[in-house]
Amino acid sequence: MVRIIHLSDIHFGCENKPAVAATRDYILANPFDLLAVTSDVTTIGAEAEFKAAAEWLAALPGPQLGTPGNHDTPYANLVARLFWPFRRYDHYLGPAWRDGFSGPGLNAQSVNTARGAQIRINWSKGAIRERDTERVTSALARAPAGALRVALCHHPLVEITGGPMTARVRGGSHCASIMATGGVDLVLSGHIHTPFALALPCGDERTYAVGAATLSLRERGAPPGFNVIEADAEAVTVTAQGWTGSHFEPFRTWSLPRRQAAPPSAVAEAGEIARAAPD
Predict the structure, then answer these.
(1) How far apart are CA 274 and CA 279, in angstroms?
(2) Helices (DSSP H) in 161-236: which residue ranges?
(3) CATH number listed for the domain at residues 2-275
(4) How far apart, in whole angstroms, are the C-alpha atoms of residue 239 and residue 230?
(5) What is the pLDDT along the chain (279 residues), one digit of tens a residue?
(6) Cβ neighbours of 146 (radius 10 Å)
(7) Number of neighbours of residue 29 by Cβ within 10 angstroms
(8) Among candidates 254, 206, 227, 8, which has minimal Cα distance to 110?
(9) Distance (Å, rounded) from C-alpha 48 to C-alpha 44?
């Protein structure tokens, strides 16, 4: 059994302090294989927020893997957002924090969908490059047979029906197809502040998009919370833990059947198939 704790959108500077403290207690009391953090760890990318995030994460046990979010860029400094948007993220959390993780029965890799600025009005929306997707998919494809293959990004690659907001990830549908065809099992994300789990509508539909709620005061129709993900050979169970105001309890649960066939050994084939799919 593989166990992942999936956090997202903690937004230090606007965090729900009791929920964040209870999340720490939960993590300390429950063993896991990986702590996956799909970012916005800050609210405006301020140095004080990064310090608080780094201190909180450093006090937690076990391996951790993350990727930047759009709020982890310097909100008020346009020059920094244009030329070095993730300098503070790398300084406080370290670029190695998003290099990937490999352990018994699990391989996880990160891809950055956040941008400091874009040629569109809403810079908070996501973008993903094909070469980054193929790098992640290739790394995951090298995992031993039967291992859970997990990709981390901040923005959902496909839109969530009924979600409280959009991600509008440039290249998202195309890159989701590459991951699905390449045998990725889970694509973890955040951004919309509500938990979800659904099959990507491509490949064999055994690649699942899984989103975690926020741990901040910026709620969007769901309580603050996080996901507990447990996987065996047959299925992945995602339990969204929701904050009641005094403790966490299961808010929603999904059971997702795993693919049984081995994924393709070469990402090149997956890329060729995916390139034929419309974005």
Answers:
(1) 10
(2) 172-181
(3) 3.60.21.10
(4) 8
(5) 999 999 999 999 999 999 999 999 999 999 999 999 999 999 999 999 999 999 999 999 989 999 999 999 998 888 998 899 999 999 999 887 888 999 999 999 999 999 998 888 888 999 999 999 999 999 999 999 999 999 999 999 999 988 888 889 999 999 999 999 999 999 999 999 999 999 999 999 999 999 999 999 999 999 999 999 999 999 999 999 999 999 999 999 999 999 986 555 444 555 454 455 444
(6) 10
(7) 7
(8) 8
(9) 10
CB neighbour list of residue 207: distance below 8 Å, 6 or more residues apart = 176, 179, 180, 183, 184, 185, 186, 187, 199, 200
Burial 236-268 (b: 16+ CB within 10 A, else e): bbbbbbbbeeeebeebbebebebeeeebeeebe
Q: What tokens were used for 233?
A: 């050979």
Nearest of 25, 35, 44, 42 to residue 64 by alpha carbon: 35
